[in-house]
Request: fold
Amino acid sequence: MNKIELSNFEVSNSSKLTVIAGLNVLETEEQAIEVANILKKVTSELGNPLIFKASFDKANRSSVDSYRGPGIKKGLEILKNLKSEGFDLITDIHEINQVEEVAEVVDVIQIPAFLCRQTDLIKAACETNKPLNIKKGQFLSPEQIENVILKCKNFGNEKIMICERGSSFGYNNLVVDMLGMSKMKELNNPIIFDVTHSLQLPGAQGDSAGGRSKQALHLALSGVAIGLAGIFIEVHPNPEKALCDGPSATKLDEFEDFLRKVSEVDNLIKSF
Reply:
């Protein structure tokens, strides 16, 4: 499917850049509301559709001692409140028993990269008939993601976005294959570029990931030059104090300048 319809906009590789942005993981409701409103203000001014992202649980943290989130009950309460304010929402699932409850709240269901080939999870998510944002596993080639798309079609859901988040490059490093993203566009699905997690240095801090947040703009500009449906970017008011993936997060007060520059390149590319 070359485009996906949401509340009042469409996500496609030829439409204005959709922005999936928000927090890596929910910390407090007050913070989530603050961040969501700032993101909405910036994206509205620049004319970019926004899908607010936040996780209620980070089930694949490096250490058992790492913060995982408020859990599904409290997390969905926060997201429901944002939904009542008119936000389009996305969050990730990890287990089949989360699917139905999450689908009642969000507009898009996200499949984490490490779970992108979990057939039963994919099946349950497809049966909600919600659009899916499927993170391409760090271990998959661009061509291999087609098998995931075919699974979804087999389960009756063609509303699939494919999300690039870097490929494993030896230990503790990720690289982004720009030619690979270009190749994935041939599959005729909207392509989302997860800038934030492509900046990760997995396990670089021993019990947590490192990151290269200062290079977010350069990576994003390179990606949108291909002509993509959207970017995925995680922000935080104070990344140094973020409870998860702070080294890869973009500082909230730098988001407007970031998106302005990225949008200008996107507009130029799509004007050709």
